[in-house]
Specification:
Blueprint (H helix, E strand, L loop, with lengths): L1 H6 L1 H27 L2 H22 L2 H8 L7 H21 L3 H22 L3 H26 L1 H14 L2 H6 L8 H4 L2 H29 L1 H17 L1 H15 L5 H29 L6 H8 L3 H17 L3 H25 L1 H25 L7
């Protein structure tokens, strides 16, 4: 075990940063659930999800491109990428600001912050990544709760926005080098657009469902669903951590086959643990959210196909083989939206949870099959 930890110290930093961030963010949403009515909780989730999805759209896949190609020797690729991001984030921010002005600033701040932390990953500055991730999440919790008591839901949005800008210092440092030179990024745009589809499938997993559930099924249903979904997002920090660690490591030639097997084992153990403990958690801490219990138990197993998806896609991206990433992302998006509408109408909030599990599983099965029949490709 000590040998494993020593050989993968960077992964440990990433997991610590992501898990602490998830604990803080999850703690925030769970605390908010105890402070707000179910309907108000659903409305807050709707607004945050809208702005977060817009930020994911603004990234254009360039965050993953930076993480993948800095280890390959493209040390200044982040400068050109950040210039493009400045434009895209402002455009998306203006569009979202039509709904709420503060949400527009939220979009810009979150986009800058994402580019900052992904640059840390590309440079294998894993400790700095953990600090920037955890620091932003902790600041969000404190500021959002304080401001919520002062000005209500807008205070939550403002708290998130301030924290994003505070921990985007890596992005702001790059601005002094901005110039009209996009040579590094031009040759990588195809790669960026392909990874964009995968990033968007993840964004749709985290945000689109809530944007659709609110207007279609109502904010009360969204409130029950959101509580259960937070548990999947907490567990999901483990697959995400593996993905973020494997891309820069394998892009620079360090193969981590044993680590992938460990990741699958961890995901199975965590799924079983949450399934067993979820009734106790709901009874003790969320007695008003009994309808969320089925959602938690169903979604607990989502970490397994999620881990498979992230591991295989990290292999594809490190090799520059993005075709499977694109197809897998499209498959997930089609099934998620279709099943959410069908199963949500048929089975209610449990059907919404099943739509996530089924879509993730179909994506994982496709990627495993695709990997067997596609020759290895090395990114240049």
């Amino acid at each position: 075990m000590l040998k494993f930890i020593k050989a993968n110290k960077g992964l440990i930093y990433i997991i610590i940063g992501n898990v602490l961030g998830a604990v803080i963010t999850g703690g925030f949403w769970l605390l908010l659930a105890s402070l707000q009515s179910v309907e108000e909780y659903g409305e807050t989730s709707y607004m945050i999800s809208m702005a977060s999805l817009a930020s994911s759209i603004a990234l254009l896949g360039l965050n993953t491109t930076v993480t993948t190609y800095i280890p390959k020797g493209f040390h200044h690729i982040h400068i050109a990428a950040n210039q493009i991001i400045l434009f895209s984030s402002v455009v998306l921010g203006i569009l979202v600001a039509q709904r709420d002005l503060l949400l527009g600033f939220f979009v810009v701040g979150m986009t800058f912050w994402m580019m900052s932390i992904y640059e840390f990953l590309g440079r294998k500055s894993y400790k700095q990544y953990a600090i920037a991730n955890t620091g932003a999440r902790a600041t969000q919790l404190v500021l959002s709760i304080i401001l919520y008591y002062i000005i209500g839901i807008p205070g939550i949005i403002l708290g998130f926005t301030i924290s994003f800008f505070l921990f985007s210092y890596k992005y702001f440092l790059s601005m002094r080098y901005f110039k009209k030179d996009f040579g590094d990024i031009k040759s990588k745009m195809k790669f960026s657009l392909h990874t964009y589809s995968f990033n968007m499938s993840n964004a749709l997993l985290m945000y689109l469902d809530k944007i659709l559930i609110g207007p279609i099924f109502g904010y009360i249903v969204l409130g029950y669903y959101q509580l259960g979904f937070q548990f999947l997002m907490f567990l999901g920090m483990i697959p995400i951590s593996f993905f973020q660690y494997l891309i820069p490591e394998e892009s620079s030639g360090n193969r981590k086959k044993k680590l992938r097997i460990v990741g699958i084992g961890i995901s199975v153990a965590l799924a079983c643990l949450l399934y067993i403990l979820s009734p106790i958690i709901v009874e003790l801490f969320f007695p008003n959210y009994e309808k969320s219990l089925s959602v938690i138990r169903i979604l607990s197993f989502g970490i397994i196909p999620m881990m498979v998806t992230y591991i295989i896609n990290s292999i594809f991206l490190s090799e520059g083989n993005t075709k499977g990433v694109v197809i897998g992302a499209v498959i997930y998006q089609i099934f998620q939206i279709t099943l959410m509408l069908v199963l949500g109408k048929w089975m209610g909030v449990s059907g919404l949870a099943f739509s996530v599990i089924i879509s993730l599983s179909i994506q994982a099965i496709f990627l495993m099959t695709f990997k067997k029949f596609v020759p290895k490709k090395i990114a240049q």
